[in-house]
Every structure is written in C-alpha cells, then in structure tokens.
Write a structure and sequence with these properties.
- By secondary structure, the protein is mainly alpha-helical.
- It is built from 15 helices and 2 strands.
- 76% of the residues lie in helices and 1% in strands.
- The chain is globular.
- It has a single domain, classed as ABC transporter involved in vitamin B12 uptake, BtuC.
- The chain starts with a helix and ends with a helix.
- Residues 1-28 have low confidence and may be disordered.
- It is a multi-pass membrane protein.
- Keywords: Cell membrane, Membrane, Transmembrane, Transmembrane helix.
- It is found in: Cell membrane.
- This is ABC transporter permease.
C-alpha cells in the first residue's frame, strides 16, 4: 500500500482525489452535509404540508423498505460512477435475474417450494447478475466500448431476454411463500424489516471496502486518472471488470429482495430504476467525471427520491409528476456538481 502511494505521488500528473486525502474527506463531508440538508428540508415540508399523515411510524417503515432495494443497487452504482463510468442496465439486470430465479421456482414447487429451491433460485439470481455485470465490464475494459453504450445495450438485451423467456408475462407461482414470509415480510426482533437489515449490512460492508481497502483506493485512482493509475501499477482492466461484476451481483441481490417483497418479477416495472439510482448517487456527491463519491452520500441520496415519492403521494400528486420531479432533481444535482468542480478548478 505504501509503495503504491509513493508511486502515485511521484507521477507527473498526480491523482488529486487519491493524493490529497484530507481535501477529499472535507469535500465528501461537505457533499454529504448539503445533501442531508436537502433531505431534512423535504421532511419538514411534507410534515407541514400533511400534518399527522407524513412521518408516521408506518411511513418511516415504508420509506425504509422501499428504499432498501434501490440502496443495494446504489451501492454498486457508486463504485461504477467513481470510476467515471455509468450503468444504465441495473433495472434490466434485476429483471433478468428475477425472471431466471422465478423460472426455477416455478418448475420446482412454485409457491410451495422448500428452502432448497429458495437457496438455488437465489443463487441463480446472484450468479446471473454477476455474470452479466462481468460481461459488461469486459466490454468496457477490454473491448474499449464506452460504458454508456455497453450498458445501454445491456439494458435492452437483458430486458429482451427476460421477455423472451416469459413471453412478456410475469410467471405465476414465481416466489416461494417461505421466502416471502421470512425475507419479504419478516422483521428482525419484530421491528426492523429484513429487507432494511440486508440493505444496511451491504451498505456498511461496501462503505468499508471503498474507504479502507486497496480495492477502494484503486477505484478512486481509476476515476481520477486511469492512465496514471495504470503507470502506478493498478490493474485497471481487471479492476473495471470487477466493479461492473460487483454491480451486477448487487442487482442479483436486489432481484431476490424484490421477489421476496413483491412476489412477482414485475417485468415492466423497472424502466426507471437506472434514473432513480443514478439520481441518488449523484445527489450523494459522486461526480459523473469520476474520482469522487461515497457510500454514505449514496445512502442519503437514496432517501431523497424515496421521501419525495412518499410525500407527493400523501399530498395527492399524480405518479407522472413524481417521475418528472425525480428527473428534475437529477439535472439539478449534476448542475450543482458542475458548479462545485468549476469552483475547485479556480480555487
């Protein structure tokens, strides 16, 4: 680790985000602070706009549960965006993973299947996501196809395969009742939904990976300056493949969580997942030009769309306007990111 730091610092064009750790920490703290303030303002607004209806115990549980799956996807997206990449296919990977998992369940007991079938179907979802993500990573790293094109193609291809397998219809008997009763509707100590627990564990694990390990350091280095990282000894291609594979794996986990909670593959219900997840990560302070971001920021960013959606429903705003609002929030987040970058360049 020490040798890597010395090599990075000796480069002609040093990696700012890696070399200036103090500045990175301060910048990260600033991003997370202003994002948290936005979240707090939204909570206060909806509380005042719908007194007694918003921020109830039921609402808090629902917001956390609804945000759990997007948080798992957002963790993977954070790594991708830090490398200056993008993944538009997360929703489709989730769908494909869910469909292949569901098809196994349908042919091995359906809703009445046992824990053996649950385990195998869950592994199918995880492996499907992992392999699809690794393939996209290989195309980005080895074939040198831009991430936007690779994942846009992956978005359509994964969804298309899912529709071919199911003939465009959500299969019946796709989820074991055991999975739904435990992971889907069960609660730790009778209070905390298991979906929230799973999302929390994934968040903590990968936050530590990003902030405290060589893998995290290499991820930041590639996003800051891939050529300099390569000259410093970082296996850039392997790192990129691993990052995209990780994102796919987390999409597979998201598929298991979705099946457990909703009991269906919802083939047509994930068209805007990429928008929601990218919005959350960028709101959390990650830069689309790479080299900056944090899992903590993503956690805060995920809850902004979640609170927005719940609050708008409570005050009677139509679903269509919710999508418009989330899209506008993404544009605003990117604009603020550009302003911060320009100020740093002129500082």
């Amino acid at each position: 680790m020490v040798n890597l730091w010395l090599q990075l610092l000796r480069l002609r064009k040093p990696l700012t985000t890696v070399a200036r750790r103090t500045g990175l920490s301060r910048l990260g703290a600033f991003n997370e602070t202003w994002t948290f303030l936005i979240l707090a303002v939204l909570v206060v607004y909806f509380t005042l706009a719908a007194p007694g209806k918003f921020l109830t115990t039921y609402d808090l549980t629902q917001i956390a549960t609804n945000a759990a799956i997007y948080l798992v996807l957002g963790v993977g997206m954070t790594f991708v965006i830090i490398t200056a990449g993008i993944d538009l296919s997360v929703g489709s990977i989730l769908v494909l993973s869910a469909v292949l998992s569901a098809e196994y369940t349908v042919h091995h007991g359906g809703a009445g299947s046992g824990w053996g079938a649950v385990l195998v179907s869950s592994l199918i979802a995880l492996v499907t996501g992992l392999l699809w993500g690794a393939l996209q990573g290989w195309l980005v790293a080895k074939a040198k196809v831009p991430p936007l094109i690779v994942t846009l193609g992956g978005f359509g291809a994964a969804l298309g395969i899912a529709e071919i397998v199911t003939k465009g219809e959500d299969p019946t008997g796709a989820v074991s009742s055991k999975l739904q009763e435990s992971i889907g509707f069960g609660k730790l100590f009778g209070q905390i939904p298991w979906l929230v627990v799973i999302a929390f564990v994934m968040t903590v694990v990968f936050a530590l990976v990003l902030a405290r390990t060589r893998f995290g350091l290499h991820t930041y280095a590639i996003g800051s300056n891939p050529e300099a990282a390569r000259r410093a000894g970082v296996a850039v291609d392997r790192q990129l493949i691993t990052v995209y594979a990780l994102t796919g794996l987390l999409c597979g986990l998201g598929a298991v969580m979705w099946l457990a909670y909703f009991g269906t593959t919802s083939i047509a219900g994930h068209a805007t997942d990429n928008l929601t997840v990218i919005t959350a990560v960028v709101l959390g302070g990650a830069s689309l030009i790479g080299g900056r971001g944090s899992v903590l920021g993503t956690v805060i960013g995920v809850f902004i769309p979640a609170v927005l959606s719940t609050g708008l429903i409570i005050i009677g705003v139509q679903q269509y306007w919710q999508d418009v609002t989330i899209g506008a929030v993404l544009v605003l987040a990117v604009y603020l990111d550009q302003l911060r970058r320009r100020r740093r360049e002129h500082a």
